[in-house]
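Reviewers of the previous submission asked for a worked example of the structure-prediction workflow described in the proposal, so we include one complete record here. The input consisted solely of the amino acid sequence. No template or homolog information was supplied to the procedure at any stage.
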Amino acid sequence: MPTYDYACATCGPFTASRPMAECAEPTACPACSEPAPRAILSAPSLGSGARSPEAGGGRSMRIHSGGCACCAPSRGASRMVAS
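From that input alone, the workflow returned the following structure tokens.
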């Protein structure tokens, strides 16, 4: 279940695990039990999908299978289009 940031007017920020369908609804503060609205306090985590070249010992790593355009070296970048 995802974790979301909430901000209690009395106690301050806290996190809570909630179903995605309920993330925008206020949740009870764990300290005072008052309803607290959702707050965006930090940037979302992108997970392990993004990799740096350093992760592969300096060599380029292909992230997606099937040779997607975002990971594959550009082919024909210097081709000119005839009009």
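Residues 3-36 form one domain. We consider this example representative of the routine output the project will generate in years two and three.
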